[in-house]
Amino acid sequence: MTEADFPADLLELQRRWYTAEADWAADPTEEKRTAFAAVGAELYAHPHWATVGNRHEAEMKLKQAARPDTVADPTT
Q: Could you tell me the superkingdom of the organism this chain comes from (predicted)?
């Protein structure tokens, strides 16, 4: 699976999860933990997961596709 195999909103949600995780790690407040958990819950409940055969495999591929250090440069 590539980035194109996932809905754009799901990719953005995974990127928000990475950002929320980093924010919470940098400043471990209850507010940031709550924000991180909220993004995680939204990610978990995304309707795309009902369309895949192996959710775990698809989640791992989504994480790889959305990682900040692997996101393709849109200008290329």
A: Bacteria
In the block, residue with structure tokens 């400043």: 27
Q: Looking at residue 72, what is its pLDDT?
A: 52
pLDDT given for residue 68 in this prediction: 81
Instruction: Please list the rounded mean pLDDT of every run of 10 residues in the chain (76 residues).
Output: 80 97 98 98 98 96 88 49
Distance CA 63, CA 76 (A): 22
Describe the chain by its helix, strand, coil percentages, rounded to 5.
Answer: 70, 0, 30
Is residue 35 within 8 Å of residue 29, measured between CB atoms?
A: no
Q: Give buried/exposed letters for 38-63 (b at 16+ CB in 10 A, else e).
A: ebeeebeeeebeeebeeeeebeebbe
